[in-house]
Write a structure and sequence with these properties.
With 457 residues, the chain is of the alpha/beta class. The protein contains 19 helices and eight strands. It folds into three domains: 69 residues; 95 residues, no CATH class; 232 residues, Rossmann fold (3-Layer(aba) Sandwich), CATH 3.40.50. The longest helix has 40 residues. The protein is elongated.
C-alpha cells in the first residue's frame, strides 16, 4: 500500500471516529477517484474525497477539520549550522554552548543541528525546567499558557546565546547569520512538531473510537452511566441509527410491490358466490409517522435523551415525527429538531424543562394533549409514550390514553423499569398496559434500538 493510500485509510478511520458513516464501498470509491485524479490538483483531490465519503451536510464540518491535518504539505526542513557557518564561527559557537548549562546546551545543539521530531529531535518542555506532559508544538496549536511560556523561555535562551557570542567577539555579520539560522530552524521545528503532534492526536482519537465501542456499554443502564460513558454512547447512537436506517430501507424495498388485501377480496367475492373473479391488492405504506409523549423528569431524562437522539437520527426513514415533553405540564418540542441536528437540539429541549422538584402528572398532560394536539395522532401514527408510569398518586386518566390508542395505528410504551416493578407504589403501568399494542423495557441502548427497530415498518 502506498503512502497516499495509508494516509487515506487513516483519514477514513478518523472520520469514523468522529461519527461519520463511511462504508467499505464508499472507501473503495475514494481510492478509485483519488487514483484517477492524483494529488497534483489539491482542490480536485479534496473534492473527490468529499464526494465519496460525505453524505450528510452535518458531516462536512468533520471532513473540513480533518482534511488539512492529513493532507497538508510537510513542514520545511531544518538547516544544519555546519553547512551554513565558517569553521571560525563554528568554533566560537561551540565555546558559547560550552558556557551554558548542560540541559540548555543540548536543547540549543538540537536547534542548530536540525533534525526530525519523529526521531526524538523535538524538545520537551521538561528540558526547559517544565513538566513533560506536553511536547513543543506550533504556537497556534498550544491551548494553554504552558506552550507560550516554553516558547518564551526558548527565545530567551537564544538571546543569551547571541549575547555570549557577541562577548566572544563574533563579527556582526556572522552573528546575524546565527540569529537567522536559529529563527529559521525554530519555525521549522514548530511546523514539524505541530504536524507530528496533530497526527499522533488523530491516531489516538481513531484508536479510541475503535476501542471504546464495547458491546457491554450497550447493555449498561442509562441511569448508571458516567459522563465519559454518556459521551461514548452518544457516538454509538449514530452507528446504531445507520444500521436501523439500512434495515428499514431494505424492508421497505421488499414491501414495495402490491400485497393481497384479503378482507377486500373476500368482500368482493361475496357478490360472485365466492368465485374469485377479482383480486384486490394494496400497497404497503412506505414510511412511519411517530408521535412521542416523553416524561423528562429527573429519573427519565437519560433514557429520553437517547430516544430522541436515535429517532431523529433516522428521520430519512420516517415521514414525520412530532415530539412532546412533560413533567407537570406538556410542551411540544418538535421545532428544535427541525432547525438543528439531534445532538444540538436535545440539549436545547432539555433546558426548556429543567430538572428539579416537580409533581409528575401524566394524567393531566394526557388531558392537555387531547385538548390541544389531537391532530398529531391519526390511523397512520405510531404513538410512543415514554415514561415509568409513576404519577405521584395523581389520576391516571387511562380513558384518555384509550381514546388516543383508538385513533392511532399503533401504540407503544417505553419504560426503563423492569416489568416486576410495574404497578408497584405510585406506578399506574398496570392501568395503561392493556391499552397499548406493545410495551418495552428500555433501560439501555441495546433494548432501545431493538424496540425502535420493531416499530419501523
Amino acid at each position: 500500500m502506498s503512502q497516499v493510500d495509508q494516509r487515506i485509510v487513516a483519514f477514513i478511520q478518523a472520520l469514523r471516529a468522529e461519527g461519520v458513516r463511511v462504508s467499505l464501498a464508499e472507501s473503495e470509491d475514494a481510492f478509485t477517484a483519488t487514483k484517477m485524479l492524483g494529488m497534483l490538483d489539491r482542490e480536485a483531490f479534496r473534492a473527490a474525497l468529499r464526494a465519496a465519503l460525505v453524505k450528510q451536510r452535518g458531516d462536512q464540518s468533520a471532513f473540513n477539520r480533518l482534511f488539512p491535518l492529513y493532507f497538508r504539505a510537510g513542514a520545511a526542513p531544518m538547516l544544519n549550522a555546519a553547512a551554513e557557518l565558517s569553521a571560525a564561527d563554528l568554533e566560537l559557537l561551540q565555546r558559547a554552548l560550552e558556557s551554558l548549562p548542560a540541559e540548555l546546551r543540548s536543547l540549543l545543539r538540537r536547534l542548530l543541528e536540525g533534525g526530525d521530531p519523529e526521531e526524538g529531535a523535538t524538545p520537551e518542555p521538561g528540558e526547559l525546567g517544565q513538566p513533560r506532559s506536553r511536547s513543543l508544538g506550533p504556537n497556534r496549536d498550544w491551548p494553554d499558557e504552558l506552550g507560550r511560556e516554553a516558547l518564551s523561555q526558548l527565545l530567551s535562551l537564544i538571546e543569551a546565546l547571541l549575547t555570549e557570542l557577541a562577548s566572544l567577539g563574533m563579527p556582526p555579520s556572522s552573528l546575524a547569520r546565527v540569529a537567522w539560522l536559529l529563527r529559521i530552524n525554530l519555525e521549522a521545528l514548530q511546523q514539524q512538531a505541530g504536524l507530528a503532534a496533530g497526527q499522533a492526536r488523530l491516531q489516538r482519537t481513531a484508536r479510541r473510537g475503535r476501542s471504546e465501542r464495547p458491546d457491554e456499554l450497550l447493555d449498561r443502564p442509562f441511569r448508571g452511566l458516567s459522563r465519559s460513558e454518556q459521551f461514548r454512547l452518544r457516538q454509538e447512537v449514530a452507528r446504531l441509527a445507520a444500521r436501523l436506517r439500512t434495515r428499514a430501507a431494505l424492508r421497505m424495498r421488499r414491501g414495495e410491490g402490491p400485497r393481497l388485501d384479503s378482507k377486500s377480496t373476500l368482500r368482493v367475492l361475496l357478490r360472485h358466490g365466492g368465485v374469485p373473479f377479482e383480486v384486490i391488492t394494496r400497497r404497503r405504506r412506505r414510511k412511519a409517522k411517530f408521535t412521542l409523549i416523553c416524561d423528562v423528569s429527573t429519573s427519565m431524562r437519560p433514557m429520553v435523551e437517547f430516544l430522541l437522539l436515535l429517532l431523529y437520527h433516522i428521520q430519512d426513514q420516517v415521514s414525520r415525527t412530532r415530539s412532546f415533553a412533560f413533567i407537570d405540564h406538556l410542551e411540544e418540542i418538535s421545532d428544535p429538531f427541525q432547525q438543528h441536528r439531534p445532538e444540538v437540539a436535545v440539549p436545547i429541549v432539555l433546558r426548556r424543562l429543567p430538572p428539579g422538584y416537580y409533581n409528575t402528572d401524566l394524567g393531566r398532560c394526557l388531558a392537555q394533549f387531547s385538548r390541544r394536539h389531537l391532530e398529531a395522532v391519526d390511523r397512520r401514527t405510531t404513538l410512543i409514550v415514554c415514561g415509568d408510569g409513576r404519577n405521584n398518586y395523581n389520576p391516571a386518566r387511562a380513558d384518555l390514553l384509550e381514546a388516543l390508542a383508538r385513533r392511532a395505528g399503533r401504540t407503544a410504551w417505553f419504560n426503563p423499569e423492569p416489568p416486576d416493578l410495574w404497578g408497584t407504589d405510585d406506578s399506574d403501568m398496570l392501568a395503561y398496559l392493556p391499552l397499548v399494542d406493545a410495551a418495552f423495557q428500555v433501560s439501555n441502548l441495546r433494548q432501545l434500538s431493538q424496540a425502535v427497530d420493531r416499530l419501523l415498518p
